[in-house]
């Protein structure tokens, strides 16, 4: 899959709602690692049967014009200096939605030897899951870097 970067993926009111919900209302837990031995950050596994999550996954499939099987979806929450490591994902396609406020000068998303994408709220990035990638930590700010990850595979026969 060719990497896709989609600006302004969602409608403004929904962007604001998700930012507030993920930042203040959705429980998340410390202990997520991108690789064994890596530094930890926060995660919240999402129930794909919840109406909002189901809507977002349906919207993702419509955006990509492709039926996908959802392996799992979750939010990652990185605070100041929570460093991630390059890693590959399970599945075939990973889509990452930048949910929290835009972060100037840090917090970029990087696909190794391919692209660095600044952290701009309401950006969706979709890429082949086996490409090495990482989210850079926000630096010297009080807000977290929150992304919504969709781990997917292609539906067979479509």
Which key phrases capture this entry?
158 residues, alpha+beta, 7-stranded antiparallel beta sheet, 3-stranded antiparallel beta sheet, 2 helices
What does the model show?
18% of the residues lie in helices and 34% in strands. The longest helix is centred in the first third of the chain and has 14 residues, at 12-25. The strands form two sheets. It has a seven-stranded antiparallel β-sheet, covered by helices on one side. It is globular. The protein has helices at 12-25, 51-64, and strands at residues 4-6, 29-32, 41-45, 68-78, 93-98, 109-111, 115-117, 124-128, 133-135, 145-154. The protein has 158 residues and is α+β, with helices and mostly antiparallel strands.
SSE blueprint and pairings:
Elements (H helix, E strand, L loop, with lengths): L3 E3 L5 H14 L3 E4 L8 E5 L5 H14 L3 E11 L14 E6 L10 E3 L3 E3 L6 E5 L4 E3 L9 E10 L4
Antiparallel strand pairs: 1-8, 2-3, 3-4, 4-10, 5-8, 5-10, 6-7, 6-9
Name of the level-1 CATH class: Mainly Beta
Instruction: Give the number of domains.
Output: 1
Q: What general outline do the C-alpha atoms trace?
A: globular
**Arithmetic mean of pLDDT:** 90
Counting DSSP E segments of at least 2 residues, the number of strands comes to: 10
CATH topology label: Jelly Rolls
Give a short account of the largest sheet: 7 strands, antiparallel
State the end-to-end distance.
15 Å
Query: How much helix is in the residues?
Result: 10-25%
CATH superfamily: q2cbj1_9rhob like domain
Instruction: List the uncertain runs.
Output: none
Beta percentage is: 25-35%
* Order of helix and strand elements from N to C terminus: EHEEHEEEEEEE
- Quickly give the CATH architecture: Sandwich
């Amino acid at each position: 899959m060719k990497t896709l970067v989609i600006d302004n993926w969602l409608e403004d009111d929904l962007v604001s709602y998700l930012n507030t919900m993920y930042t203040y209302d959705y429980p998340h837990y410390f202990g997520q690692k991108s690789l064994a031995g890596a530094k930890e950050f926060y995660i919240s596994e999402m129930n794909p049967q919840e109406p909002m999550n189901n809507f977002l996954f349906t919207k993702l499939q419509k955006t990509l014009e492709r039926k996908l099987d959802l392996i799992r979806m979750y939010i990652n929450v990185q605070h100041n200096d929570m460093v991630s490591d390059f890693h590959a994902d399970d599945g075939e396609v990973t889509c990452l939605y930048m949910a929290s406020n835009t972060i100037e000068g840090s917090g970029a998303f990087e696909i190794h030897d391919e692209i660095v994408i600044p952290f701009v709220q309401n950006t969706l990035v979709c890429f082949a899951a086996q490409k090495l990638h990482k989210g850079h930590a926000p630096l010297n700010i009080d807000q977290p870097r929150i992304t919504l990850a969709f781990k997917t595979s292609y539906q067979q026969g479509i």
